[in-house]
Structures are given as structure tokens and as C-alpha cells.
Amino acid sequence: MLKSSLTLIAGSSKTTQALQEQLEQLLGDYVYIKSHAADEGIPQSLEDTIILYSSASVYDQTKGMYSVNAEKIIVGKRTVHHEYIDKLLRIPEDSSVLVVNDNDDATINLIESLYQLGINHIQFIPFRKGGLFYDDVRIAVSPGETHLCPSYIKEVIDIGVRLFDMTTILEVVECCGLSKDISSKISERYISNIIELQRKLLHAERDAKQMSEHIQNVLGTVDDGILVVNQEGRITVFNERLTALFHIVAQDVVNEYVEHVMSRRDITDFIMNGKDESKFFDIDGVDVVIFRLQMMQENTIVATFKSVHQAFEIEKTAQREMRNKGFHTKYGFEDIIGEHIVMKERKRIAKKLALSEHPILIQGETGTGKELFAHAIHEHSLRKNGPFLAVNCSALTESLLESELFGYEEGTFTGAQKGGKKGLFELADNGTIFLDEIGDISLTVQSHLLRVLQEGEIRRIGGVRIIPVNVRVITATNKDLQGKIRAGSFKVDLFYRLNVLNLCIPPLIERRADIPILIKHFITKSGKWVKIEQDVLEYFMQYEWPGNIRELKSTIDYMLTICEGNIVTKGDLPSMLGQEGGSVKSEYPVCGSILEMKEHVFILEVIKQCNEKGKAASRDLLSSKSKESDFALSPQQIRRRLDILESEGFVVKGRGRAGTKITDAGIEYLYFLKSKYAVYC
């Protein structure tokens, strides 16, 4: 069988090459194919039996340029290459997309082809040269004519040269007089491409469905209620959390108008028209904060429903992030736990010191809570609205500590950040700076710090500019600074600058009465419900606690972690406890009976209450008060009990009517008995 001959005429060489490759793939075994591009010139005479034009516009443009002896002229129709369909499917739904081609007719034809292919999730806008300024359009699509796209379009998608559609291919087959078998083979070749296109569309649909299901599953795991309303006021997202809150099934409300779904007019008014970012609502007894976000580009409103507790936790998290940067205090005096008379006195003094502007030196053993007091002093001071910055001087090398405290200028050293860096003293201006472990700083840093305290000004490392600062300085140490002065490792003049006001924090062994209170506090903060066995409490009351409160807390954390059930036993004690210098003190005197223990608790408690009111407790008063309790004691019986307590150093009896006072040891013993009483009674 003789092959027919066909000449292809297209507008550009790029289009010509793509169309010839398509024809060769489908018809090359049966038809001789030649091609010419109008922009490269066409011979004066075309001798082939069939002339195929790439489009009507090319036919109109070139038909008078040469003589044609063809038996058949075909003006082809074209469609989008299936390989580029997925690019179009990825464009977000409802996007406005500019369609750019080399002439208006081709642009309109391309848009029609795209819609016929089912690409109808986006809005196509035809491009016209010298036309409108498409300022709201961010995406453009072009079939190989991307050079024509306006320069302000941010994303250009090239979908390649459009190929001949099936009707054009079948018309060529008919004109070539090919047999039915050959025609079927050619159709199969073309249809295989269509099937590939359909497969891509099905994959995209499946992926979209899976993505939708994935999003719904994710939204179902979120603790917040999430409601999304489109520009028409219809609900597009209604997650499971809202289903539980409003007792409405999500499938029943999606695509419904929000005001038809929610009976609460105040809630719908806020969601649709609210001016504030958030508002409090009581929804069937549940306290809820609704956060409203309007997405202008999407014409969508997103409402997030959080419980008041969640909102509070979010606020705490934000505050914690700010505090982590060192610009805010973490604690106030209410966070300093302790009822011992010594601690009450230290807190009273600290509150007075807070109202002054002088430097404060806080001294105490490690783990006693020196930094806690520093935070509380700032929070109670006139500078409480200013910044609070804390630095541990022992954690940094000399050079690094200098740069942190005083800052540096650009180029001072390798790695210095561009523009230099403010030091902590600059950042703490009109606030407070807390220098922990001040006893560990070098003599060089001491000299620079002394200048700040004397002159109220700093100079950055590598700089010449003097920068005035208004900073209150609080320092802390567990070192013997006067001993370091004698050793020549601490400047005496700096010591007296820092030690204008002094606060000594007692070790835990001097406030044993606070141990049960601290234990209860740490357990409460842990969120666990446990009971401490009596022998553990007794051990804690007798142990020396060289690590003070920090060691006590670590011990409690350890025991809460490893204990079985809700009982903490002596077997849960850390194996290292007592091996670091914390020997166990001799036990308190053992009461002969529970009744005797109750009597001691009663007598010490009444004396303590009287002492706190500035009064001493007489035997007659104690006897009178005892008659209001479970037992009655005569004045003579009270005297004998007081003799026993005095012999142990727990009380001091006055002469005659002077009455009796409780000692610090007596307060500790009282707390010990009360913890024992709580277990046994």
C-alpha cells in the first residue's frame, strides 16, 4: 500500500516540531509527513495531497502566500497535552488564572479546551495584549508562550504546545483512505493517551479525597473546636469537638448557613461580624473563648473554640516564652513556701528591701532559694513593670560574661554579630539585673561592674561611647566573700557596693518545721495523689539536707517517680541520700501514747497562737482551752507537760504570770507531731 503524503503548516517552529512529533507517533507508519513553520517561511508551492493547518488563525494568515495543489485541506483542532494536566490540578480552588496565548482566538479556544477537560475548579481570564492590568491575578497559564506573560505575574505555568484532538486525527485518517484495521490501531494509540489523562484525573480526585479525609482526621484530634465559614456564610468545616459542644452532627451542617445551624444569635453575630479577636461565651454551662480570624484572601472566617482553661494555659505558655528570654520575673513572694518564724521574718525584711533602690546582696547555701527571693523582690519593687534579667556568672567564661553583661561593638572579635550587640545592663535599663554566683567572677569583670555601680554607665567592649543605664542590681552567692577579700580574689570596694542591703536565707535545717509544708507543696504541684508513710516523714525531719530545698525537691521527685501505687515508703528513698554529708539527726523524743502526742500538739499549738499575737500563754489559759478539746487538763497537769517540753528545749517558761513561749525547735517539733498525728488519727 502506497503511503499518503501530508504537509503540516503551523505558526511557529516550536509548535511545528511538537505537532509533527504527535503525527509521527500516531500516523508515521502509514503517512509521509512534512512540515513548515510560518515564522520560518513556506515554499511557494505545496504539492502534497493533504495540507493540515495547526489552527484556523494560521490558515487565515498563510493561505494567500503560496499555491496549493492538495486534494484535501484540513484545519485542525487542538487540545491540552495530557502530561501537563497535573500542573493545572494543583492550582488552588477558586483561583483566578490568566490564560496567555499568541492571539485572542487561540486564547479563547484554549480556555474552552480546559473547561472541556474538566479543569473547572479555577476561573480562567483571557489575556489581551495592551489590555487591562490584572493586578489581582497571581497565576498565569500559557501553551509555550510564556514570554508574553506580564512581568508582574508571580507564577507562570507552561502547559506546553497544544496537540491535535481526536476529531482532527480521525479526519486525517479518513482523507488518507486508511483501512479500518489501521484506523483502529491509530485510534487505540490516541485513546491510550486519553486513558492516561483520565488516570491522572482519577489519581488527583483520589488524592484530593484522601487529603480531605486526612484533614478531617487531623481536625478530629484537635482539642479545639474549629468552625470555618465561607463568604456566603455557609459552614465548610465543623470538627468533632464542636459536635460534642453543640450536640450537632458535622455531616448535617456542612454547607448549611451558620445562622441556621447555631441557635445562639450572639455567637453567630460575633463569628460573622465581630470586631474583637476573641470573646467569652457560656455554652450550656461550659466556659468557652471563641477566637475569630478573618482570612481576607480566602474570603473565609475561621472560628476556634477553646475552653477557658485552654486559653489560660496558652496565655501561661506565652508568658513562659517571654520569661525564658529573661525579661520577666517568674516568682513573687507568694511562691516562697514556708511558715517558719525565720522565713516569715526574711520575707518581711525582703519586702522592705524591695521598696528601696539600693543594691542587694543575697547570701545563703546552695538550694535555699536565693534566686526565688531575687525575682520576688523585683516583682514587689517600684520597677516591677520594667525588665528583669538574670545571669549565672559561674556558667560563663570571663570574656563571654563581659560581652553578655556589657555588650560589644561590630567587629570587636571574630563572630561578632553585625551592628554589635546590647549587653544585659542595657537591656535591663529601668529594671533589675540579677547576678547569681557573684563570688565566681574574675577581677577584670569586677572592675567593670564596679564602674557601673559607681557611675551608672557602661561602655561596650570595643566601643568608646558611654551609655548611661538605670539598673537596680541584685546579687547572690553561697561563697564567703569576706574570706575571698582576705585572699585577694574579691575587691573590697565592690563588696561594699553590692552589700548595701543584705539578706541571708536560712538553710533548711534551721527551718525544719517547713519540711512537711514543702513536701505537701511539691506533691501538689506534681499533680499526683500520694501518701507519705510516717517513717519517711520522720526521716525527712531528722535528715540534715545539705542541698537544702533543691535536694528535698529532687528527693520528692525521685520518690514520686518510682513509688508503687499511691503510697511512698522508706524503700523509695534515693540510695545516695545521706551519703553527701547529710547525716541523720537523733530522733525526737517518742511520746508514750497517742493521747500524750495529742496533748503536746494541743499545748504547743495554743502557745504558738498566743505568741503570734504578742502574748505569752499561762497555765490557766492552757487548762481552760483544754476543756474545749477532747481532754481536760488541770493547771498542775499542764505544768508537768510544760516541764517535759522545756527540758527538750521546745518551750521557755516565764516566772510567775509571765507565761510560756515556744522556741524555734518547739515549732519544728510541733510540725513533726502534726505530721505524725495526721497519719495515726
TrEMBL record:
Gene Ontology biological process terms in this record: regulation of DNA-templated transcription
Domain PAS: 211-256
Entries under PROSITE patterns matching the protein: PAS, SIGMA54_INTERACT_1, SIGMA54_INTERACT_2, SIGMA54_INTERACT_4
Molecular-function GO term, any one: ATP binding
SUPFAM superfamilies, per the entry: P-loop containing nucleoside triphosphate hydrolases, PYP-like sensor domain (PAS domain), Winged helix' DNA-binding domain
Domain Sigma-54 factor interaction, chain residue ranges per copy: 336-561
Pfam families per the UniProt record, alphabetical: AAA_lid_14 (PF25601), Sigma54_activat (PF00158), WHD_RNase_R (PF08461)
Keywords: ATP-binding, DNA-binding, Nucleotide-binding
Signal peptide: none
Protein name as annotated: Fis family transcriptional regulator
